[in-house]
């Protein structure tokens, strides 16, 4: 066992997590291994992140006790079946697959200690929001191992597994909603005459600043909204438009839709 952590599936999320882990100094690139079926992707990840990347998953299972499953949910069963003979009881498996339950994961890898995680994509810039649930064999030490990774790239909470669908709806899928908001705010700026570059940077910094304010002050978002709305001013005109067009309702329904989809995926 020469590696500290191994990622099966070197796609978008694995790249984001590995970049975050290396940038934060938790593990060095020579302590990380990955496996990936697609040859051009193997070459890209090996060159970009400086880690060892293999075609098959057996080498990885033999090289590390800490395996991250970062393939698509529908690929999990086949991946675990392929390495079953190499999985021992001291293997810790961290699955980031949406909707795949601990019971399902434990049925595919009955000897292993398993922790189910819902991270999010901004782990690549060390600003991730994650939650996890422990499987029946996972120890507190295993949870600390996983927490060390998740806290290195952002914040994390342990939750009951039944709440991971809600986590997926809010923070797992959430970066996509935020990117849509940034894009749309930028469009508004361009409509009103700003250059695209300046409009996008102003929009992104505005979401970042608002998010930092809530996290650092602990204030209620409604109170902070009220502070921005000057009586008879510009903001309340915009807030009226957002209420008329159902921004809040759209976001609440979006979170519900993603959470319900995650729960439905878990029934398969
Ligand atoms: N994207 C996100 O923001 C988030 C994703 N997740 C979860 O993370 C997981 C990965 O998502 P994401 O990174 O977006 O997906 P990607 O499709 O980008 O990454 C998965 C990678 O695994 C490869 N792969 C497929 N089969 C195997 C195999 N047998 N062995 C090794 N590699 C294999 C895929 O190759 P190929 O494409 O050729 O099949 C692909 O490159 C998913 O389960 C998702 O639910 C969780 C939170 C956020
Ligand atoms: O869209 C998805 O299914 C994955 C899980 C959460 C974010 N992306």
UniProtKB/TrEMBL annotation:
One of the GO biological process terms: L-proline biosynthetic process
Function comment: Catalyzes the reduction of 1-pyrroline-5-carboxylate (PCA) to L-proline.
Residue numbers binding NADPH: 57
InterPro entries, sorted: 6-PGluconate_DH-like_C_sf, NAD(P)-bd_dom_sf, P5C_Rdtase_cat_N, P5CR_dimer, Pyrroline-COOH_reductase
Domain Pyrroline-5-carboxylate reductase catalytic N-terminal per the UniProt entry, residue ranges: 4-99
Gene3D superfamilies per the UniProt record, alphabetical: NAD(P)-binding Rossmann-like Domain (3.40.50.720), ProC C-terminal domain-like (1.10.3730.10)
Record field: catalytic activity: L-proline + NAD(+) = (S)-1-pyrroline-5-carboxylate + NADH + 2 H(+); L-proline + NADP(+) = (S)-1-pyrroline-5-carboxylate + NADPH + 2 H(+)
Entry protein name: Pyrroline-5-carboxylate reductase
Residue ranges annotated for the Pyrroline-5-carboxylate reductase dimerisation domain, each copy included: 161-265
One example GO MF annotation: pyrroline-5-carboxylate reductase activity
EC number: 1.5.1.2
Gene behind this protein: proC
Subcellular location: Cytoplasm
Main EC class the enzyme belongs to: oxidoreductase
